[in-house]
Structures are given as C-alpha cells and as structure tokens.
Amino acid sequence: MKNTGMTRPLDQLGRIVIPIEIRNTTGIEIGDPLEFYMDEEKGFLGIGKYNGVSCKLCSSAQDLSYFKSSLLCRQCILEMKGNVGVTLTPVSPVKEKPKKKRVHRPTLELLRSLRKLIRKHPEAKQSQYAEWLGVSQGRISQLKKLL
C-alpha cells in the first residue's frame, strides 16, 4: 500500500472529498458508486469503485468467474487465454513537452501591463488579456478588481 501524503478533513456531516489525482488514477467519476473495505485489526479503511456483480472488463453479468479477486466472464477469459483480437504493434516512446515555468511577476507590474492593454484593446476578453500577460484568467479577474 502506498501513502499518498494527501490529507482531507471530515466535515460536520461525515463527508470527505477524494482528491482529483486519486479519482483520475482510479477511474472514479462523479456519481460513481463506491465500495468500502475495512480491516478492524489494523484500523484500515479503503475505498474502491463499485462494479457490482459483473465482468470487470465488459460489464457482462453472464458466466462469471473469479480471477485474481476480480470477476470476469467466460468470453473475456477465453479471449485473454487465446489473445483474441490482440495485435502487437511497436510503440514509440512519447516525448513530453517541457512545461513552461511561470515567472512570478509583482502585482504592480502586472497591473501596469494590464492597464496598458485595456487602454489599447478595450474590447478584448479576459482570456485574451490572460494570454497576452502569461497569467490565468482568474488572475486577470483579481487584477481588474484592484484597478
């Protein structure tokens, strides 16, 4: 088991927010049913996406069997055994684009730049100002309030 280092408080109604990083990694979407696991001896509480009584791969409810603690249907098991529909193609490594580092600029400098842009392009949208200044649209909104 891996410690994520993330903590979330329990609110007054006993609810907790599952961080988006964990939801994305586990494939949990908003509205998905969740299943709770508990080990009283170790004080462990786990959460997983609930798939119900269906095949983990195709969601079929016919001819189910357990395979390594997951339910699979007979058809999926046969396809895995025979590698039906599997074509092996070489995959080239994907080169990730280096992320642009945002340079922190003082608020006064941004205000001056925004003021100039507003005078020059009064009809422009916040998204355009944000792109021109290299900041987020939310930051433009904050700066406009300071003007």
Molecular structure report:
It is a single chain. This protein has 147 residues and is α+β, with helices and mostly antiparallel strands. Among the domains are: 20-49, no CATH class; 53-84, no CATH class; 107-146. The protein contains 5 helices and 4 strands; from the N terminus they run H-E-E-E-E-H-H-H-H. The protein has helices at 20-26, 74-82, 107-120, 126-133, 137-146; strands at 34-39, 44-49, 64-67, 70-73. The strands form 2 sheets. A two-stranded antiparallel ribbon has the order 1-2. A two-stranded antiparallel sheet has the order 3-4. A hairpin with a 2-residue loop joins strand 3 and strand 4 (70-73). Helix 3 (107-120) crosses helix 5. The protein is elongated and about 70 Å long. It starts with 19 loop residues before the first helix and ends with a helix. 5% of the residues are buried.
